[in-house]
Amino acid sequence: MLTATYTLVALSVEQASVRLSLLSFQKYVRTTLMQQNRMTLSQLEYACENLNTLYQACHWRKTEMYLIPALRDATERADQLLDELNRLNQAALTSIRLLQEKLGSLADVRDEQVSEVCDSIDLFCASLLKRLEKEEQELFGLARNAIAGETWFSIANQLMMHDKHLDEMKRSGLPPAEAAQVSARRRALPGGAVDDGQISIPGLQVLPIVSVEEVSAPPLKKPARPALRDDAIMK
Question: For residue 110, what are the β-bridge partners?
C-alpha cells in the first residue's frame, strides 16, 4: 500500500497545479472581464486560448493517462463515476466550442454578450474544478481499494518514466511546456514511440499559473487556434 500512497500523493500534486491555474483564470474573469461593459475580439480570443490550454492540461494529466485506465480494467464499480467525470469533461468542452463559434463573427462583445461569455467561462472552470474534486474525493479512494498491488507498481513505474523523459527533454533545452508535450506524446503511444508528424497536442502537463497581473492586458496579436479533438474526451 506504500506504493499506492506514493502514487496518489504524486497525482494529488499534479491535481493541485491544475486546480490553481483554473482558479487563477476564473478569478481573472470575475474581477476583470465581468466588470466590463464590452469585450474586444482580442480579449475573447485570448480567453478561448487560455481555456483550450487549461482543458488540454486537465486532459493530459497522469491521472487521466495512467490511473483511470488501470481502474477501468480493475473494476466495473467505477463505471458510474467515470461517466459522471466524462459529463463534466463534456460540459467544459462544450463551453470552449461555444466561445470559439463567436470568434470571427463579432467585432466586439457588448453588454449582455459579455455576461454570456463570462458565464460560459465560469461554467468551464466550475466543471473541471468539480471533476478534480470528485477525482480526489471519490476516484482515488475507489482506486486504492480496487487496484491490485502489482498494478500500483506498474502505475508508479509509468509515472517515474514519464518524469524521467520530461527531465531529459528539459535538459536538452526544450521549454517546460513543450517538453511536457513531447513527454505526454511519447508515453501515450504504444511502446513509447514519438510520432510528431501525426500527433499535435498543445500545452500539456506543465501549465504555467495564470496570474491576474499577467493577463489583465491580453496581447493584441492573434495566436493560432489548434482545433479541439473529439478524442480528447475521456473514453
Answer: 38
